């Protein structure tokens, strides 16, 4: 069976991680991998997570299976986090949520669901998007197409081209939109642009698939779901994939969710049986621990407040590093304007650095970024920002 199997090239980001690990340079800087790091370069376990785990250690009574759609408490808590209390979708029972292994698991179940209920539908993703979107949907057998998103000349959103492309998408197709902190560009639509996008998506009868992987990492828990709420106020049907990897720092616990929004409550109940079926056929049921941590935190007032504070600390550190990188480059009298970096949201920035410049940084300074020029702002800290700015200054000469 395996004698003539073709080797598949490994993931470029994983290769970058290995190259970084093997680099003996004591001043090397990792701006590649998409995880939060604190000012000492560590991806910490949040203190509130430690508290929730201590509570669970004392109080958990069983490791029995949880059903295919996971923890029954998690769904309502995540719905409220995204939509706010007493949202009509909740009170009218037009939303149902299944726990999944991470945001990636949610995207895969969404792909399987689309394939099961409307095999002709395509998924339209932004150009560029998180590269795994292509793999995940291809794995689910759903055709993926792209719409324009990034305006390289302005380092901004190509809103006119994006709206024009949405006008051409066939009715009934699915359009994936990043709720906030767009990966890889860091460029989010403004409130006014979200209004335009939502009106058009609804007019075209498209089904939005809202990828909500960074709630709280951009401007705040409420601010980061403006687009999501606007889309849901206009579109009768939608899919939402949630990741708790970043905002709870629970990367390796694999905790996320898929929410289904339907026009009527009875559609929701019926369609949710398809979600359960996709999950059963795939991994039977999700792991329990991450969901137990998130439900413990979100259902306790003090823990929730502590979580919001720790999340704010992560968000503010990223924003501070954005601002300091811009002023540090300005103080070196760089021949390029990088002020757009301070306007971008979340962990990532399309820095505008070319592939050659990225490779120069790697070869001469041990600074590792993705060849597209995407940098993880959370990889910058007070110790390495001076070296990084100097290196960028040299790379763009
Ligand atoms: N969606 C986007 C846009 C992401 O950037 C990521 C992770 O990087 C995910 C989904 C998946 O996150 P998870 O680690 O929870 O699977």
Strand and helix layout:
Blueprint: H1 12-22, E1 29-30, H2 47-59, H3 74-83, H4 88-91, E2 95-100, H5 102-117, E3 123-127, H6 132-139, E4 144-148, E5 150-151, E6 156-157, H7 159-168, E7 174-178, H8 191-203, E8 207-212, H9 226-234, E9 238-243, E10 256-261, H10 265-282, H11 289-298, H12 301-331, H13 340-343, E11 348-350, H14 355-365, E12 367-368, E13 374-376, H15 385-395
Helix pairs in contact: 2-11, 2-12, 5-6, 5-10, 7-8, 8-9, 12-15, 14-15
Protein name: Aminotransferase
Cofactor: pyridoxal 5'-phosphate
EC number: 2.6.1.-
Fourth CATH level, the homologous superfamily of the largest domain? Type I PLP-dependent aspartate aminotransferase-like (Major domain)
Number of domains: 2
Across the major sheet, the strand order is 2-10-9-8-7-3-4
Rg calculated over all Cα atoms = 21 Å
Could you give the order of the helices and strands?
HEHHHEHEHEEEHEHEHEEHHHHEHEEH
Number of strands: 13
The biggest beta sheet, please?
7 strands, mixed
Tertiary shape = globular
Q: Please work out how many helical segments DSSP would assign.
A: 15
Query: N-to-C terminal Cα separation, in Å?
Result: 53 Å
- Enumerate the distinct ligands: pyridoxal-5'-phosphate
| Structure classification | alpha/beta
What percent of residues adopt helix (DSSP H or I)? 40-55%
Which CATH architecture of the largest domain is right? Answer: 3-Layer(aba) Sandwich
Percent of sequence in beta strands: 5-15%
User: What is the highest CATH level, the class of the largest domain?
Assistant: Alpha Beta
Give the mean pLDDT.
97
Low-confidence stretches: none
């Amino acid at each position: 069976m395996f004698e003539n199997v073709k080797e598949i090239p490994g993931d470029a980001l994983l290769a970058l991680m290995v190259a970084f690990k093997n680099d003996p340079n004591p001043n090397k800087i990792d701006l590649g991998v998409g995880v939060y790091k604190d000012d000492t370069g560590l991806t910490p376990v949040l203190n509130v997570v430690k508290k929730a785990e201590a509570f669970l250690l004392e109080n958990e009574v069983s490791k029995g299976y949880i059903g295919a759609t996971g923890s029954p408490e998690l769904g309502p808590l995540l719905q409220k986090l995204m939509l706010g209390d007493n949202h009509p979708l909740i009170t009218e029972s037009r939303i149902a949520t299944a726990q999944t292994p991470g945001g990636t698991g949610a995207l895969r179940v969404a792909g399987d669901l689309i394939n099961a209920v409307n095999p002709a539908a395509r998924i339209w993703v932004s150009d560029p998007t998180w590269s795994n979107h292509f793999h995940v949907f291809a794995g689910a057998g759903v055709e993926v197409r792209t719409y324009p998103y990034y305006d390289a000349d302005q380092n901004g959103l190509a809103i006119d081209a994006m709206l024009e492309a949405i006008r051409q998408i066939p009715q009934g197709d699915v359009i994936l939109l990043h709720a906030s902190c767009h990966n890889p560009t860091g460029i989010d639509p403004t409130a006014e642009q979200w209004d335009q996008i939502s009106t058009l998506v609804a007019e075209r009868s498209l089904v939005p698939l809202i990828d909500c992987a960074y709630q709280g990492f951009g401007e705040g828990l409420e601010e980061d779901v403006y687009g999501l709420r606007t889309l849901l106020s206009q579109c009768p049907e939608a899919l939402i994939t949630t990741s708790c990897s970043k905002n709870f720092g629970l990367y390796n616990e694999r905790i996320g969710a898929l929410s289904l929004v339907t026009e009527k409550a009875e559609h929701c109940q019926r369609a949710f049986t398809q979600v359960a079926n996709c999950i059963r056929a795939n991994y039977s049921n999700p792991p329990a621990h991450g969901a137990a941590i998130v439900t413990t935190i979100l259902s306790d007032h003090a823990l929730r407040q502590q979580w919001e504070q720790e999340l704010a600390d992560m968000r503010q550190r990223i924003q501070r590093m954005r601002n300091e990188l811009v002023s540090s480059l300005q103080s070196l009298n760089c021949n390029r304007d990088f002020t757009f970096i301070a306007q971008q949201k979340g962990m990532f920035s399309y820095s505008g650095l070319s592939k050659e410049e990225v490779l120069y940084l790697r070869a001469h300074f041990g600074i590792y970024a993705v060849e597209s020029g995407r940098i993880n702002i959370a990889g910058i800290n007070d110790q390495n920002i001076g070296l990084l700015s100097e290196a960028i200054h040299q790379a763009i000469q």
